[in-house]
Amino acid sequence: MTLRVVRADPAGNITLLVLDPVAPADRPGVARRLLAIPDLAAEQVGFILPPSQGGVLRLAMMGGEFCGNALRSAGAWFALQNNLRAETVFPVEVAGSNGLFQVTTDLAHGAAWAEMPLPEQIDENFPLSDRTFCPQAVVVRFPGIAHALLPGCRPDKLPPERVASQLCRVLQSAAVGVLYLDVPRRQLQPVVYVRATDTLVFENSCASGSAAVAAWLCRSRPDGLCTYDIRQPGGTISAQVRRQDGKITSLVVGGHIALEPVQTLSLS
After folding, report:
1. Residues 6+ apart with CB under 8 A from 60
2. Phi/psi class of residue 138: alpha, beta or left (left: φ > 0; alpha: ψ in -120 to 50)?
3. Structural domain for 11, as ranges
4. pLDDT tens-digit map of 18-59
């Protein structure tokens, strides 16, 4: 199998975008093979598809999960293909999610922003089975992914495998994030498990994880716009939350992004 692939770098969360058609049933296997290529050092794989609901393109992730950084990457690739260097806004479809998501790109400044789905639920007292080193677990559920925020907790004290296993069992989500969060420093170490590919990755950044953190941090803020810069191993992701009548009405994440030229890979 020969595939054209774009390697994107959204704040260190290396994302491969596959440009050639791959059958849905084959995507997890193809993704595993791409993730196993050492030189690519990728953390996730998305597939670019023709649009069907009014977007400029359609993005399908390797395990059917929702990924904000892949959405930003897909938008940046579209802008590059169409020579859209200045700030531009356009709609993108995401497989497994309803509606269109607005992506804003500014390639002249190496930036891309993506509209996120709103949280379906925020549970501030999720009954984590092991609370010895982590007294609080906050679960933020989005369509396609659920995140467990662990304030003040470290992976050497509570391994992410334990949390991911419990989340998958209880929530039945396509993907789960385990977010080790230093609240005062706004610092985050995201770990993401994708069920279909059975991959657990210490990610350099996570856009949906950043959105989850921002949604939780602004829970007691007055109506209006809240902006948080979430520092992560690969860079900083900014998250903007708008609240009205005590509810979140919009959620946008963004920051630096870079794209490499298209490369052709042969998978045996």
Report:
1. 24, 27, 46, 47, 49, 94, 95, 96
2. beta
3. 2-115+256-266
4. 999 999 999 999 999 999 999 999 999 999 999 999 999 999
Tell me how many domains the chain contains: 2
Q: Summarize pLDDT for 138-151 with one digit per residue, the tens.
A: 999 999 999 999 99
Residue 66 is classified by DSSP as -
Under 8 Å between Cβ of 174 and 204: no
41 & 127 share domain: no
| Rounded Cα–Cα distance for residues 7 and 134 (Å) | 36
Q: Express each pLDDT in 9-19 by its tens digit.
A: 999 999 999 99
pTM of the model: 0.95
Residue type, position 85, single letter: R
Report residue 83 CA to chain centroid gap.
Answer: 25
